[in-house]
Design a protein that fits this description.
Low-confidence stretches: none
Largest sheet: 8 strands, mixed
Number of strands: 10
Distance between the termini: 11 Å
Structural class: alpha+beta
């Protein structure tokens, strides 16, 4: 079996058959390691602040896999306005957050498998249950990522992505 058909789960390290159904980025594109030493910057698994001026949340772009019923996910970062980021933080542990209207944001993760840059695509950030990453909905455009989110992908495309992203 090739690496695209057998992998270790990134959460539990258990061997898994088939290509991964999710990939993610550990930080927004403009995060620099040196910012960790700044008082006005912070990176956690869910949120990021850069120089007290740029605010991000970690969410999922979910794409239906049409021929299997699975969901493929990109773990991405989205910038929010300071006000919307503050509201997100205020409601982070509140079950009522699911009732929030979506927040506008700009995609701040580069996904190199697309021919066009994914940076600064317009998004809507939908809060979900406490403990569940926000759902990132791309504005409907002709960008290949937006088309995939809207129309879904095939299991063959999932395998293609694994071939592009996994070592070996």
């Amino acid at each position: 079996m090739t690496a695209a058909h057998h992998h270790a789960c990134s959460c539990c390290a258990e061997p898994q058959d088939g290509p991964p159904l999710s990939y993610g980025s550990p930080a927004p594109v403009n995060w620099k390691r040196r910012y960790a030493w700044r008082r006005d910057s912070e990176l956690t698994a869910d949120q990021c602040v850069v120089k007290g001026r740029h605010f991000y949340v970690h969410g999922l772009i979910e794409i239906p896999v049409r021929d299997t019923g699975d969901t493929f996910s990109w773990g991405v970062w989205v910038s929010l306005s300071e006000a919307n980021f503050g509201r997100t933080c205020d409601l982070w542990e509140d079950p009522a957050r699911e009732q929030e209207p979506p927040y506008f944001g700009w995609l701040s993760t580069e996904l190199p498998v697309y021919g066009e840059s994914t940076l600064l695509l317009k998004t809507h950030v939908h809060s979900r249950a406490v403990g569940v990453r926000p759902l990132i909905e791309l504005e409907p455009t002709d960008h290949p990522l937006a088309v995939e989110q809207r129309d879904g992908i095939t299991a063959a495309r999932v395998g293609e992505l694994a071939g592009l992203l996994l070592p070996g």
